[in-house]
Design goal:
single chain, alpha+beta, two-stranded antiparallel ribbon, globular
Length: about 120
């Protein structure tokens, strides 16, 4: 039988793998969905130009996991991509046991341009 801290470490590792998969596939929902499946509560932490969600799981009064996801707009140039960042933490009491971070750049959206084809025109 696992101790509470061993269980917390297993949950941490499972979410770390989910974060890596989300970054590899450039699809944030993978990690967020898995956090909810594992029983994490979800809170909106969006502000300004950043969309964010915080997922929290308290295993015991002194063992706590947190996953923060933020997607930030980069508006420096027309071709700038949004950046999505994840931070996963495990705390035991006031001690920070583990932290894992990863991020990915989202592909920029194409700029609308007129298209002409056989007498028709449209903007894409």
């Amino acid at each position: 039988m696992l101790t509470s801290i061993e269980f917390a470490n297993e949950v941490f590792e499972e979410l770390r793998v989910s974060i890596n998969q989300a970054c590899k596939e450039r699809y944030w929902f993978i990690a967020c969905r898995n956090a909810r499946v594992l029983g994490f509560s979800q809170t909106d932490v969006s502000c300004g130009a950043a969309y964010g969600q915080c997922f929290e799981l308290q295993i015991e009064p002194d063992i706590y996991l947190s996953l923060t996801y933020k997607s930030m707009e980069c508006t420096e140039t027309l071709t700038s991509s949004d950046v999505t960042r994840f931070e996963l933490t495990l705390k035991h009491g006031d001690e920070l046991i583990k932290v894992y971070q990863n991020e990915f750049e989202e592909a920029p959206l194409p700029i609308a341009r007129p298209v002409r084809h056989r007498g028709y025109s449209a903007t894409i």
